[in-house]
Automatic annotation (TrEMBL):
<dbReference type="GO" id="GO:0061630">
    <property type="term" value="F:ubiquitin protein ligase activity"/>
</dbReference>
<dbReference type="GO" id="GO:0000209">
    <property type="term" value="P:protein polyubiquitination"/>
</dbReference>
<dbReference type="InterPro" id="IPR035983">
    <property type="entry name" value="Hect_E3_ubiquitin_ligase"/>
</dbReference>
<dbReference type="InterPro" id="IPR044611">
    <property type="entry name" value="E3A/B/C-like"/>
</dbReference>
<comment type="pathway">
    <text>Protein modification; protein ubiquitination.</text>
</comment>
<keyword id="KW-0597">Phosphoprotein</keyword>
<keyword id="KW-0436">Ligase</keyword>
<feature type="active site" description="Glycyl thioester intermediate">
    <location>
        <position position="698"/>
    </location>
</feature>
<dbReference type="GO" id="GO:0016874">
    <property type="term" value="F:ligase activity"/>
</dbReference>
<feature type="domain" description="HECT">
    <location>
        <begin position="391"/>
        <end position="730"/>
    </location>
</feature>
<protein>
    <recommendedName>
        <fullName>Probable E3 ubiquitin-protein ligase HECTD2</fullName>
        <ecNumber>2.3.2.26</ecNumber>
    </recommendedName>
</protein>
<keyword id="KW-0833">Ubl conjugation pathway</keyword>
<dbReference type="Pfam" id="PF00632">
    <property type="entry name" value="HECT"/>
</dbReference>
<dbReference type="InterPro" id="IPR000569">
    <property type="entry name" value="HECT_dom"/>
</dbReference>
<comment type="function">
    <text>E3 ubiquitin-protein ligase which accepts ubiquitin from an E2 ubiquitin-conjugating enzyme in the form of a thioester and then directly transfers the ubiquitin to targeted substrates.</text>
</comment>
<keyword id="KW-0808">Transferase</keyword>
Length: 730
């Protein structure tokens, strides 16, 4: 609604904008908020980091303020008395629509948004109450929503009066710390739907700049207040910030904005404010919106490696990088960073091997540039373990696999086959390394004690090699596993440091052993006498090779009864025992195996859920999407054989569709970018129609003879994909 009056509007407000630049120059030059030291705080809650440098091993934790502060804060100024209610305002709007006379509505908007005091007078639930706690912002959310919903349907002069009032508020001289009324005003102004319009971006940018420059103490209040906002409004504000960043990076009409050199602070300010919403979202379980809703796909099109290198070089300096705020970077973009970082490490290691060879006056060999793994199918696990243990120094080279006695050349397909077969054997129940839980359809580490945990290290190395070489694996670990894998994300220098231990909850146990977790949940909610009715102690029992063994959850646990008072501690210790302590040696070996290949600062950018997607891909098959992105060689997509093919494939069961994908690509999982990233190709095979289809898994290519009818094609295709182990060489 503001497009038509944009130029006149900003020519009118230009002096205000200039004044903002002058008055806020000091604030704008600060890239990190100042810290407010508050002594003697009790009951402090932990908050996710906001403006963080994720390269630090000890990530910044930001303490939230308690409900009541012992340190003095500025007194709230006297608020004007405003008595208009939601119903009064709605009646005024209806009368204005009917009569065309908007004076009353215009007066309300121009008065309400004229200053921060007036905003509080209109929208504070009780002007006589301070509302100085993080639990209650004191904002009448319903009134705010009604006023903003009506705003975009009012005449231009009404909308302009709101923007002019906001500018007046932003121009106010700040002589000390912000009051809670100021923070309320910021919280309300962020919800203004006018800021979705590019013609308001100059004003929006200055609002974001002021919020980003607030102290950490003030940020805590905004974070906790934001988590109380409805999902719809929360998502709108996040989308508005993402759009602001995107359009500043790639403006559709560059003339609408000041030159980039004069507003380099726009994007950092918006990103820091977005970090507040991300922190608020992380405080809620389940979160208000998905973590993927914070992704900005526009960043997929910038120089990501420059961002990554700047972050590596400058770290916690004043130089801004999106890598300082990894929640905004999509999983596809993070995959690109990890792949390129892996490629650079591969090239560096290969170059060093070549230099070492030449310096010793030895003849260079092309094989020295790769991690060459030779295995027998009949001794797959033992051969793989021996090869990886013997070639530790080569783990960061490009992987090439050879099956002894087979003529296949590894252009990627043999590697996929090796991963698939090895994972299948290692995770077989008879092998004893992992336990499969039918209720949750996932594997978990066996707690059986053994003398050698090298095979767990092998599985970790396999996962690392898969990420490093961009291979997806069919591994079904629970999310808790990936959380442990990033604890810590960088291998500590001191090998005595505990690794793979993270905070675990009953929710984590539900994802692995739902029946046991349900029983513990029932214990927590039991209303009777726990000690007399359950007769349990702080002790657990496990069966190992037919022998029942007992373990105390705390010193003298076998003598401590579980009561109504200590049952929460019992459940927490029980969960910690199952997911951390009982499998510590197994998981530590797994952790070191993974990081022996994937040691990279790029891991600091990833959430546990994103690690899982990189390792396993997506199990969701969309064959229609594959059909849309398939390329053809020797065929047209309208050819009869191709039409037969897709009719058959789209009618397959999920199991047969997975077999087809495995037959053609070497994996039955979908990569991060979806089916389009497979670059799947169907080529015409100039052979007899008596032949079965063939595949070049290195190139994700299916060779299909021109079968005469659908029945023949379906029969030959099912035979081919159901008997697809082993490689030949044409």
């Amino acid at each position: 609604g503001l497009e038509g009056g944009a130029k006149n509007q900003f020519s009118t407000f230009s002096k205000f904008i200039t004044t903002i630049n002058q008055k806020k120059e000091g604030i704008g030059n600060r890239n990190s908020p100042t810290q407010l030291v508050i002594p003697n705080i009790k009951n402090v809650r932990d908050l996710p980091p906001l403006c963080l440098d994720v390269r630090q091993k000890q990530r910044m934790s930001i303490d939230t303020l308690p409900q009541e502060l012992k340190a003095p804060f500025p007194p709230e100024p006297f608020l004007p008395i405003r008595t208009k209610t939601v119903k009064d305002f709605q009646d005024d709007v209806e009368k204005s629509k009917a009569s065309g006379d908007w004076k009353a509505v215009h007066y309300f908007y121009s008065t309400t948004f004229d200053s921060f005091l007036e905003i509080n007078a209109a929208f504070k639930k009780d002007t006589n109450s301070p509302f100085n706690t993080i639990e209650d912002s004191g904002i009448d959310a319903k009134f705010v929503n009604v006023v903003y919903d009506a705003l975009l349907n009012t005449p231009q002069d009404v909308q302009k009066s709101v923007l002019k009032g906001i500018i007046n508020g932003l121009l106010q001289e700040w002589t000390g710390p912000r009051t809670k009324d100021d923070l309320r005003a910021y919280c309300i102004l962020l919800q203004n739907p006018q800021f979705s319009n590019t013609s308001t971006y100059v004003i929006y940018a200055h609002l974001l700049r002021q919020i980003a420059a607030l102290t950490e103490a003030d940020h805590h209040f905004l974070v906790h207040w934001s988590k109380k906002i409805s999902q719809k409004r929360f998502k709108q504000m996040v989308d508005r910030l993402l759009q602001f960043i995107s359009l500043r990076l790639f403006p559709a009409k560059p003339e609408e904005f000041p030159p980039m050199v004069k507003c380099t602070w726009w994007i950092p300010s918006a990103t820091k404010v977005l970090a507040l919403f991300n922190a608020a979202n992380s405080l809620i379980s389940p979160p208000i919106i998905s973590y993927m809703d914070f992704y900005n796909s526009t960043l997929d099109h910038i120089d990501l490696m420059e961002e990554y290198h700047n972050w590596q070089c400058y770290g916690n300096s004043h130089r801004f990088s999106f890598c300082q705020y990894p929640f905004i970077i999509s999983i596809a973009a993070k995959k690109v960073i990890i792949q390129r970082d892996s490629e650079q490490q591969m090239i560096s290691i290969a170059r060093q091997s070549l230099v070492d060879k030449v310096s010793r006056r030895q003849k260079p060999d092309m094989n020295m540039l790769f991690l060459n793994v030779k295995v027998r199918r009949t001794h797959l696990v033992s051969d793989s373990l021996d090869e990886l243990a013997r070639k530790k120094a080569d783990l960061k080279k490009k992987l090439k696999v050879t099956f002894v006695g087979e003529a296949g050349l590894d252009m990627g397909g043999l590697t996929k086959e090796w991963f698939l077969l090895l994972i299948r054997q290692i995770f077989h129940p008879d092998y004893g390394m992992f336990t499969y839980h039918k209720d949750s359809h996932c594997h978990w580490f066996s707690s059986f004690k053994c003398d050698n945990y090298s095979e767990f290290r092998l599985v970790g190395a396999l996962m690392g090699l898969a990420v490093y070489n961009s291979i997806t694996l069919d591994i079904r670990f629970p999310p808790c596993c990936y959380k442990k894998l990033l604890s810590p994300p960088i291998v500590p220098c001191d090998h005595n440091t505990v690794v793979g231990i993270c905070d675990v909850t009953l929710d984590d146990l539900f994802q692995i052993m739902p029946e046991l977790a349900h029983g513990l949940s029932e214990l927590l909610s039991y209303e009777g006498n726990v000690e007399e009715d359950f007769y349990s102690t702080f002790q657990v029992f496990q069966e190992e090779f037919g022998v029942i063994k007992s373990y105390s959850l705390k010193p003298n646990g076998d003598k401590i009864p579980v009561t109504n008072q200590n049952r929460k501690e019992y459940v927490q210790l029980y969960v910690d025992f199952l997911l951390n302590k009982s499998i510590y040696k197994q998981f530590a070996a797994f952790y070191y195996g993974f990081h022996s290949v994937c040691a990279s600062y790029a891991l600091l950018l990833l959430r546990p859920e994103e690690i899982e997607i990189l390792v396993c891909g997506s199990p969701e098959l969309d064959m229609s999407a594959l059909q849309r992105s398939t390329q053809y060689e020797g065929y047209q997509k309208t050819d009869l054989t191709i039409r037969y093919f897709w009719d058959v494939v789209l009618g397959f069961s999920l199991d047969l569709q997975k077999k087809l994908l495995h037959f053609a690509t070497g994996s039955d999982r979908v990569p991060v970018g979806g089916m389009a990233d497979l670059n799947f190709k169907i080529s015409k095979s100039e052979t007899s129609t008596n032949w079965l289809p063939m595949a070049h898994t290195c190139f994700n290519q299916l060779c299909l003879p021109p079968y005469k009818n659908k029945k023949e094609l379906k029969q030959k295709l099912i035979i081919g994909i159901s008997n697809a182990e082993g490689f030949g060489l044409e």
